[in-house]
Amino acid sequence: MLISDSGDMPAKASSEEVPPADVPLGDRLGEIQYNSYSTSGNISQIAKDQLSILKDEFLRFLKKQLKQAMIFRSLNKSSMR
């Protein structure tokens, strides 16, 4: 644990020191949009890769949400009886 010069408060780790975290879908889409907006050239390979990752992540998210919706509907129907 790192100790900062402000007493007993631990110092916060920099982004290089923390393990990679999942990137929110909106952040990933925003990066693609931001980096593509200011260029008149072809879409970069990095942007294409990010879009591919975004599609995969969104499909997993959508499947999870649809499963939750089905569970909710079945619970709702059983409570109406």
Describe the structure.
The termini are far apart. The chain has a domain at 25-80. The longest helix is centred in the C-terminal third of the chain and has 36 residues, at 45-80. Helix 1 runs antiparallel to helix 2. By secondary structure, it is mostly helical. The chain is built from two helices and no strands.
Amount of helix? 55-70%
> What is the overall pLDDT average?
81
Report, as a whole number of angstroms, the end-to-end distance. Answer: 56 Å
State the order of secondary-structure elements, H for helix, E for strand. HH
How many strand segments?
Answer: 0
Give unreliable regions as ranges.
none
Total number of helices? 2
Sheet having the most strands: none
Give the overall silhouette. flat
Radius of gyration: 21 Å
What structural class results from the helix and strand content? mainly alpha
- How much strand content do the residues show? under 5%
